[in-house]
Design brief:
The protein contains five helices and 14 strands. The chain has 250 residues and is α+β, with helices and mostly antiparallel strands. The protein has a six-stranded mixed beta sheet, covered by helices on one side. The chain is globular and about 50 Å long.
């Protein structure tokens, strides 16, 4: 295939991916924060991701907010009530014979991290490809985040290999809960998502997991368990940041 043709196909694929919100294929995870009465919406945390990769997190009612496109710049966004985040790391990959994708031809990266406070804990937000970068999650952990949320759409090549593995790694490394929310799989779409929205606890255990189909999953975020794990294995206070920084400069 000629290079120009390949780039054209990539652009069309990416454009179709961003138009796919119209299909309303979705997967949602309802996460109750230390609340045994999950049906009480006032104490429920709702994560909702459309095929577009747009997330809405709210406390008392389910709502939707449309992604706002800048006239000069388009990014992959997530909206959390009045807080928004933009994907920091762009998905530029080439796995010969399987998948080639280059978001940088169409999208612009974010230049800041997104954190927000809830009545229960501080939350760090990353989008899709951001989950591959451990440094981002470490900074969130150091700034007091106890839950990291990654709306994302891994594909059928990277999904089965890395989707759950990366979530468990980020959770164990930083002793946080990780919720990764994927659109449901649409085999007819130009970009087919892996699905399998998942929640992992700080011990690295998968405590809730969806399949590929459209569904809703529930789980509890137990901050007491998080505190116990951090007390038993106190890695956050044992980091040698002085040494890491010095070695990085060599």
């Amino acid at each position: 295939m000629e290079p120009n043709t390949s780039r054209s196909m990539q652009r069309r694929s990416l454009g179709n991916r961003h138009k796919s919100s119209q299909k309303l294929q979705r997967s949602a995870a309802y996460i109750s924060l230390e609340d045994p009465f999950r049906k009480r919406m006032v104490e429920s945390c709702i994560i909702h991701v459309l095929s577009l990769g747009l997330m809405v997190l709210c406390w008392q009612s389910i709502g939707r907010k449309n992604k706002k496109e800048n006239a000069r710049s388009l990014g992959t966004n997530a909206v959390v009530q009045n807080t928004s985040g933009v994907q920091v790391h762009l998905f530029d990959i080439n796995i010969p014979g399987k998948i080639q994708f280059k978001e940088s031809e169409t999208l612009s990266p974010g230049n800041s991290f997104s954190m927000f406070d809830t009545p229960y804990c501080k939350v760090g937000l990353g989008i899709c490809y951001d989950i591959r970068f451990a440094e981002m999650a470490q900074i969130y952990g150091q700034k007091g985040c106890q839950l990291l949320i990654y709306p994302g759409a891994f594909n059928l090549t990277t999904g089965p290999a890395h989707w759950e593995l990366l979530q468990r790694g980020r959770a164990v490394d930083n002793q946080v809960y990780v919720a990764a929310v994927s659109p449901a799989r649409d085999e007819k779409a130009s970009y087919v998502a892996w699905g399998h929205s998942t929640v992992v606890n700080p011990w690295g255990e998968v405590i809730a997991k969806a399949g590929a189909e459209e569904t809703v999953i529930y789980t509890d975020i137990d901050l007491k368990k998080l505190a116990e794990i951090r007390q038993q294995i106190p890695i956050l206070g044992q980091k040698r940041c002085d040494l890491y920084g010095r070695e990085m400069k060599k």
